[in-house]
Write a structure and sequence with these properties.
- Four copies of one chain form a homotetramer.
- Chain A has two domains: 115 residues, NAD(P)-binding Rossmann-like Domain (Rossmann fold); 177 residues, Dihydrodipicolinate Reductase, domain 2, CATH 3.30.360.
- In chain A, 36% of the residues lie in helices and 24% in strands.
- Chain A has eleven helices and 15 strands.
- In chain A, the strands form three sheets. The first copy, chain A, has a seven-stranded mixed beta sheet with strand order 12-11-7-10-9-8-15, covered by helices on one side.
- In chain A, helix 8 packs across helix 11.
- The longest helix of chain A has 20 residues.
- Strand 14 of chain B pairs antiparallel with strand 14 of chain D.
Chain lengths: 340, 340, 340, 340
C-alpha cells in the first residue's frame, strides 16, 4: 500500500459531505480535519471518527502535519482560502469556480504563489473525471476520430435553483455553463477564441430580477479553427441531461446519458425505458470519487493535476464572455493566451 | 380507388429518376410525360411505359390533360419553369431550393400568380415527410413536450461533393444547411429572427476557391424567443448523419440515425453495431415517397401542401443570413414577416 | 439488363397479393398469369396489366412460355400443384409448409421429379432472406463467432388467429414453430436430432378444441452437439416479436426487433420508445421481396435456391416432433439423415 | 439512526472480502468478528479496525453480544456452521448453495431449529437483489405484464473455472444454473414441476473427467402451467452475460446486460459500443450490497428475508433435476410441495 496523505476538509455542506464519504473509502487518505463554520458539539459526535473537528480553517492550515486541503466552502471564499493555503504550503483541491468576482490579475498572483511553493492546485471540474467523458477525451487524444472539428455538449439541470442559492453560487454562465466551457476546451485540446451566446428566461421570467437566464444556446470557435455548440437549461423535467459529442475527420465519439436501469417494458401502448439519472450527485458519483482520487495520486506521486489554475482562469474567461455576449448581443472575443 | 392525377415529370437526373420510380408505385398517379434535355431514342426505349418522352418542357405545359408537374431540373432553371407552369395552370412540385439567384421580389411575383390561379406549389423539403421527423413534428404540435425551447439538428454528408456540382446546386448554406433551416423553423412553428453562423474549411481547404465552406456551426433565435443550434459537415466518414432534437417545458423528443440493421456482434474485443445508412437516397427513401404522395393528395383533395412557396422564401432568407454571417463575422437579423 | 423471366402466380389471397406487388417492382420478371379460384370479371379489371387472369392453374402450366410459377394457394393444395408443375417442367416457388398431411415418402417422390427435370424448387422460408437474419447467418458461416454452441429464437405473433384459419394453415407447430425450426437449423448449419417441447393454452383454452396450443417452449439438440431454445406465443400485445441469437466460442450475434422509428420521448414520467413493427407483413417486407428476387435469380442464373425441398422435409420432421413431444410428454428423436 | 446490528463474518475469501467491504459502508452494522481458518498476525494487522479477528467460528457463536453471522465459507461446511449458528441463536446469512451433499431431510431438520428459535436465515441468491431484476420482479408482481407465461434467463460466465475450484463449489448445475433456477421461480411466483435439460462439453471436453459440463440448455414447467427456458455457458468471450425476460398476457419485461459505458464510437468501419461488465463481482456489486443491507434490515425490523431456507431447498431440488436430466436423457419431475 502507498503511504497515507494527511488531509483536511474545509467546508462540509452537501458537496463537502459527498467528498467526505468518498474520502472515507480511500486507503491512501488519512482524513485529519473536518472544518466548517457551523461546527458544534453535534458535529463532533457525527464525525467522531475524524481526529479534529474545527470551525476555523486556520487551525487546519496551521497544522504542519497536514499536506493537502479540500476547499468546498461557498464560492466567494474560495480565492481567500486558496491564497492562505498556498502560503501555508498545502496542496489544494478547490471546488469550481475559482471565484465569481476576483479579478484575473489577483488570481494570477495566487497561482504564482502556488507555483513558487511547488504545490498542486486542482480545480473541481469533476466532469473531466467522469468515466464516459474521460474515455472520449482519451480516445480523441489518441487520434481515434482523427482531427476534431465539432464538439457539442448538452447540460440540463432537473429543476430551477432557488434564487438565494443562485446569488451565492453564481448565475447560469458562471455556475453551470462554465462546466461545458471547460469540457469543450478540454475535449478539443484548444483554447476558445470567440463566443456568441443567446440566453433567455423561457422557464422562469422572474430570474431577470437577479440578472440571470434559464436557457442558453451558444456557438464558439477554437484557436485551432474548430467549432463548438453548447445548450443549457435549468429545467429538464425528465432528469439530469448530460451529453457530449466530438466529431472529427475520422469519426465521431459520443456519450449518451447514464440510466439507472437496462429494464425495458413492452406493452400494447409503447415501449418504455428508464430515464436518465435524476441529479448531478448520482450522475457524477464516480467522477467525484475519481477527481479526489486523482488529486491524492497527483500529490503523492508528484504528477500534474487533471485541472489546474490556468484551466480555472480559461473557464472563467469563457463564462464572462457568455455573460457579456448574452447581454450585449454580439460575439465576444476570448483571449486564448496565458502567461504567469 | 380515387381518381388518377395526370402528371408530367420535368428533369430526370438522379433525383428525378428517384421520383420516377416512386411515381410508378402510386395507384392515383397517371404519369404521362417524361421530359429531359437529354432525351433521345435510348430514353424512349427505357421509358416505353410512359406515353410521352419529350425534350422540351413546354410540350408538357401545353398539354391541357396534364394537371400537375414535378420540376426536378437544375436549380438555376427552377424559377423560370415554375413561372411557366403557373401561367399554364399546372399544380407544381418543385425541388428545393426555389432559386439560387432570383431576387425575393421576383419570387413573390411568381407566388402571386400561383395563388391567383388557385394552384398548389409544393417545395421539395423532403425531411418534413420523413416518418421520424414527422412524428416529432406532430407530437410537438400536440403539446407532448409542452412549450418548445431549444431545437437542434445535425446534418452531415458522407463525402465532399465535386466542386463543379457544388457550383450548380449551391454552396453549403444554400444546398445543405437550408434543409436544417427549414426543419428547425418547421419544428418550432416560429420564424427565425437572427442567425450567427461560423463556417470553415476544416476538411478541404480548396473549397475556398469557390467561396464555400465544409463545416458550419450556428446558433439562431426564433420569433417566439426560443433557440436553435445547427451543425453541418460535408464529410462524416461513418455515413449520412441526420438527427433532430426538440427540448421543451414538458420533455424532449429526439430522432436518432436510422440504421440498416438491428444486428449486434459481441466479441472479446468490443460490441459492434451497424452504422447509419450511407446516403440521403436510402435514408430519406420514405420521405421522398411520402412527399410526392402528399403532393398528389393535396392536389386531388384540394388541401394545403406540406411546404409551400413562403416556406421556400423563409428558408432562402435564412440560408442567405448564414452565408452573410460566416462572411461578415457578425449576427444577421432575419425578417420573420411576409406578405404577398 | 438481364432477360425477363416469364412467371405465373397461382393463388392470390393476402400473401399472394403481397408477392404480386413485389413482382411488379422486379425488372427481370415478366408476370404473365394471375391464377386464383375466385377469379371473375372484377379481378380481370383489377389485374388488367397482367396478360392472363385465369381460374384454373392448369392453364398456367400448359402455357409453354411460362418458365416459373409461384404457388401461394392454401396449404393442403401445395403438394398436388407442385407435382403438376414439376411434371410440366416449371421452376417452382412454393409457400411453406410443403404440406400438412402428405407423407414424407410421397414428398420424396415429388422431389425426385423436380430433380430429374432439373428444376428449381424454392420453399417460402422468408426469414432466411430477412436482412438481419441473413447478416447473422453469413457472419456465422464466416466464423465470426467461432464454433456456434447455442442458438435461440423468439417468435410471437401479435394476436391469436381465427380457429377456422388455423384449421387451414395448420396448428402452432406446423404453421409457426416450423419457421423457427427451419431458422435454428439454418443458423447452426447442422440437422436437428432431438426435440423436447412443452406446449399449453395459456391465452385461449378453447384452442384445445382443435388440438392446438398457443404457447410453446422447447429445447433441441443438433447433430454437431450444439443446442437450441425456441419460444413461441400466439399473442404478444406489443407487436410482432421476432428475435434470433447465436452464441459461439468466439462471440455472440443477435438481432433485436425492428422498430418503425428511432424517435425517443423523455418526459417526467418515463422514456418511451416505439414498439416493434406490428405484423409479419411489415416486419418481413424486405424478406418477402428478397426471397422472390433470389428465386428469380436462381432460375435465371441456374444457381441453388435459398431453401429447397429437403429443407422443407427437415422442417416438417421437426414440426411433427414438436407436436408429438407436446402430446406425449417426452423427448422425440429426429432423423437427421436424408437421401432421395 | 437505527440501532447497530452486531455481526460476525465467517469465511473471508474473495467473496467474504467483498461482503467485508460492503459491511464497512453500512451505518447500522457493527462488524465485531472476522473469522477465517487462515487468520494469522498478518490478518490481524490488515483487519485492525475489527475488534476480533479469530480462526475458530465457535468463538463468534459463543459471544452472546453477536446477533447475526454471515457464512461465506466453502460450500461443504455451510450446513454444519448454519446448524451450529442456529443452535447458538444467531440470525444467519448463508452463501448459496446451502449444501452440495446434505440430504434434504437433514436440511429440513436444520430449518426446523431456525424456525423454532425465531431466527432469520437468508440465502445468498444475490440476483434477487440486483436493481434491474428486482425492478422486473416487482413490476411482474404488480401485474404490469398481466399473467406471466414465459420466463427466460441467460447466464454466461466469462471463463471456465479451474477444475479444483469446481470440485469445491460444485458443478455447473449446482454452482451456476442454480442461480437461474432460483431466479425463474422467483420471477414466476410459482414452483417448478418439471425440467428437461441438455448439457455438453462444447468448450472444454476435459470437464467430463470431473463429471461436469460447460453448456446447458433447458426447458422447464411451472406449477401454474407457464414455461421457462434457461441457457448457460462457462465461457462468453465478450464478458459476463446476464439477462432476464418475462413475457405475459399484457406485455414483456426484459433486462439487458449492464455496460460500463454509454460511449459510442462511429468510424468508417463500424459503430462500436462497450461490452457487458466483465465479471460477476462488478456486475452484481449493487446486488451484493443490497442483499446484506436487506438481511440486516430484516433482522433489525423483524421482517421476512428475501430468500430463505425453503428457497434454498427448491433451488437445490431443481439443480439436482438438471443434473439428472442431463445424465439420464429424460424429463425429470420436481416436487413443488414443501412442508417443514
Amino acid at each position: 500500500m502507498t503511504r497515507k496523505l494527511k488531509v483536511g476538509l474545509i467546508g462540509v455542506g452537501r458537496q463537502g459531505h459527498n467528498h467526505y464519504e468518498n474520502l472515507l473509502t480511500m486507503p491512501d487518505v488519512d482524513l485529519q480535519y473536518i472544518c466548517d463554520l457551523k461546527v458544534d458539539d453535534e458535529w463532533k459526535k457525527e464525525y467522531a471518527n475524524v481526529p479534529h473537528v474545527v470551525k476555523d480553517y486556520h487551525e487546519v492550515l496551521d497544522d504542519p502535519e497536514i499536506e493537502a486541503v479540500l476547499i468546498v466552502t461557498s464560492t466567494d471564499t474560495h480565492a481567500g482560502i486558496v491564497l492562505d493555503a498556498a502560503k501555508a504550503h498545502k496542496h489544494i483541491f478547490c471546488e469550481k469556480p475559482f471565484s465569481l468576482t476576483t479579478p484575473e490579475s489577483e488570481v494570477r498572483e495566487i497561482l504564482k504563489i502556488v507555483d513558487a511553493n511547488h504545490l498542486k492546485l486542482q480545480m473541481g471540474f469533476n466532469r473531466r473525471m467522469d468515466p464516459q467523458f474521460r474515455d472520449i477525451y482519451e480516445r480523441v487524444r489518441k487520434g481515434v476520430i482523427g482531427s476534431p472539428q465539432i464538439v457539442k455538449t448538452t447540460s440540463r439541470d432537473p429543476f430551477v435553483l432557488d434564487k438565494e442559492l443562485i446569488k451565492r453560487v453564481g448565475t447560469l454562465p458562471f455556475d453551470f455553463t462554465i462546466h461545458d466551457l471547460d469540457m469543450v476546451r478540454y475535449m478539443m485540446g484548444s483554447n476558445i477564441t470567440e463566443i456568441y451566446a443567446k440566453g433567455g428566461t423561457l422557464i422562469d421570467p422572474t430570474l431577470k430580477e437577479i440578472d440571470d437566464v434559464d436557457t442558453i444556446a451558444l456557438v464558439l470557435e477554437f484557436e485551432n479553427g474548430s467549432f463548438g455548440l453548447i445548450d443549457n437549461s435549468r429545467q429538464a423535467v425528465y432528469g439530469y441531461d448530460e451529453r457530449v459529442e466530438v466529431f472529427g475527420s475520422e469519426g465521431m465519439l459520443k456519450a449518451e446519458n447514464v440510466s439507472n436501469s437496462t429494464v425495458e417494458l413492452y406493452t400494447d401502448k409503447q415501449e418504455e425505458k428508464k430515464n436518465p439519472l435524476p441529479i448531478f450527485m448520482s450522475r457524477y458519483h464516480e467522477a467525484y470519487l475519481n477527481e479526489i482520487h486523482s488529486f491524492v495520486g497527483a500529490v503523492i506521486e508528484d504528477k500534474p493535476v487533471v485541472a489546474n489554475g490556468v484551466d480555472a482562469i480559461m473557464a472563467q474567461r469563457a463564462a464572462i464572455a457568455v455573460d457579456q455576449s448574452i447581454k450585449l448581443g454580439k460575439p465576444i472575443k476570448v483571449d486564448p493566451t496565458f502567461e504567469l
